[in-house]
Amino acid sequence: MYRELMKQSDELLVQHILEGNEEAMSIMVERHRSFVLTCICQTIQDRYLAEDIAQEVFVKAYRHLHTFRGDSKFTTWLYRLTKNQLIDSIRRQHKGGQVERMEPYHIVSLQFHDVSELPEEQVMKRECCEEVRRTLRSLPDKYRMVMELYHMRERTYAEIAEMLKMPIRTVETRLYRAKTLFKRKWTENVGAGVL
Predict the structure, then answer these.
(1) pTM as predicted
(2) What residue spans of the chain are helical by DSSP H?
(3) Planar angle of CA 39, 42, 45, nearest 5 degrees
(4) What is the Cα–Cα distance from 152 to 147, expressed in whole angstroms?
(5) Tens digits of per-residue pLDDT, 132-177?
(6) What CA–CA distance (Å, rounded) separates 122 from 135?
(7) Which residues 6+ apart lie within 8 Å of 6 measured at CB?
(8) Given 6, 141, 157, 181, which is the most exposed site by the fewest CB atoms within 10 A?
(9) Considering only CA atoms, which of 33, 28, 85, 83 is closest in space to residue 56?
(10) Residue 74 CB neighbours (<10 A)
(11) Separation CA 27–CA 13 (nearest Å)
C-alpha cells in the first residue's frame, strides 16, 4: 500500500489523508519537507528554528487540509501556509526577545520564490530582494527601523509607537520620510521607473 501511495499525485494523497490514511500523511511530509525548509531558510538562518517551524507547518497543513480545494497546485497552497506560519513565528520570536536568531533584513513582505516561476525570474527576484536589503541598510537607523517594523514585520503604527516609545504621529512622519529616502536611494542605485 505504501509503495502504491508513493506513486500518487499530491491531490490523491490529500484525499487519502482526509479519509484517515496516516501513511499518506507520512508520504506527504517526506515529499515536501525539503521544499518547506528551503522556503523557511531563505528568511531564517537558524536551522533548528527552521526545523521547528517546518514541523508546525505540517501540523497546520494536516489540520487545515480540508481547506485545500484543488484550484491551484498543492505546493502553492503549502507555500502560502508556510509563509503565514513563518510570519507568525517571527512575531512570536520578536515578542520573546529572540530576534537575533533571524536575519536582520527579511525579504520584502517575506516573499519567497514562487514555485511556478521560471529559474530566470527567480534569479531576478533574488537579486532585486538583495538590492532592497542593501538599500535598507544604507538608511539611517531611525528610518530603517520603522521601515523594517512596518513593511517586513507587519507591525501597526500603534505597535511601532509602543515598541520605540514615541508618539504615533512621529512614527507616521518617520515612515513617510523613510519611504521617500528609500525611493531616492533605490532610484540612484537601480534606476528610475523601478518603484
Answers:
(1) 0.51
(2) 2-6, 10-18, 22-41, 47-63, 74-95, 119-137, 141-147, 157-164, 168-190
(3) 120
(4) 7
(5) 778 888 889 888 888 888 877 777 888 888 888 889 999 999 989 9
(6) 20
(7) 27
(8) 141
(9) 85
(10) 19
(11) 8
Record the cell numbers describing residue 27, joined without a space. Answer: 508520504
Query: Which residue carries 520605540 as its cell?
Result: 164
Give the whole-angstrom CA distance, residue 171 versus residue 54: 34
For 5-8, which contacts have Cβ atoms below 8 Å and span 24 or more sequence positions?
A: none
Long-range contacts of 142-145 (CB under 8 A, 24+ apart): 142/174, 143/174, 143/177, 143/178, 143/181, 143/182, 144/178
For the chain, report the end-to-end CA distance as a whole number of angstroms: 53
At 164 the three-state DSSP class reads helix
What is the C-alpha to C-alpha distance for residues 170 and 151, in angstroms, rounded to an integer? 17
Per the structure block, which three cell numbers stand in for 47?
536551522
Q: Which residue in the block uniquely carries the three cell numbers 519567497? A: 112
For residue 38, what is its C-alpha cell? 528551503
